[in-house]
């Protein structure tokens, strides 16, 4: 049985919508497969932009409007800001994200959390989680044109989100975070005494 957080649904309902909005939802245990299928479905509908939300996000009412304005200003892929649900509660944005090849041929994923990020503005990042991301369809097509129809396939120890970010950068796309879009990351915490 699939459950969706009430806070997530509430924030979707209160979202200030921009333009014609079509929703796509995909259920499955493989998030990279779900993202790839949603991307393909969006291409089929003729969408010009994609807005990705994870179902554990508490989205601010103006997220779509701000991210749309960013795309109107020429940015191709922009993330909102949210933090990990477990300690340390660091932002899910990264100042670098790459792979190091070890002598034995193994790949070691490397990334650095961007903790001292600029407040209330847009700034370039190397990667981000995909809890709240807007991109142009042209950017998505650049990535799929270069890397095939599975741009969210995990690679080198990274999840689907950072793998997509690395592919986007290799396709010549700059990645941005707009820290004016502050999302909550819904989770469960058990408090024990102090």
> Level of helix content?
25-40%
The beta-strand count equals 10
Number of domains: 1
What is the beta-strand fraction?
25-35%
Low-confidence stretches: none
Cα-atom Rg, whole angstroms? 17 Å
Order of helices and strands: HHEEHEEEEEEHHEE
Can you tell me the overall shape? globular
CATH class: Alpha Beta
Class by SSE composition: alpha+beta
Largest sheet, in brief, is: 5 strands, mixed
CATH architecture: Alpha-Beta Complex
Question: What can you see in these coordinates?
Answer:
The protein is of the alpha+beta class and 194 residues long. The chain has a single domain, classed as Spore Coat Polysaccharide Biosynthesis Protein SpsA, Chain A (Alpha-Beta Complex), CATH 3.90.550. It is built from five helices and ten strands. It has helices at 6-14, 31-45, 63-72, 137-147, 160-170, and strands at 49-53, 57-58, 77-81, 93-101, 107-113, 122-125, 127-128, 132-136, 175-182, 184-185. Helix 4 (137-147) crosses helix 5. The longest helix has 15 residues, at 31-45. 32% of the residues are buried.
Draw up the topology in text.
Blueprint (H helix, E strand, L loop, with lengths): L5 H9 L16 H15 L3 E5 L3 E2 L4 H10 L4 E5 L11 E9 L5 E7 L8 E4 L1 E2 L3 E5 H11 L12 H11 L4 E8 L1 E2 L9
Parallel strand pairs: 3-9
Antiparallel strand pairs: 1-8, 2-10, 3-8, 4-5, 4-7, 6-9
Helix pairs in contact: 4-5
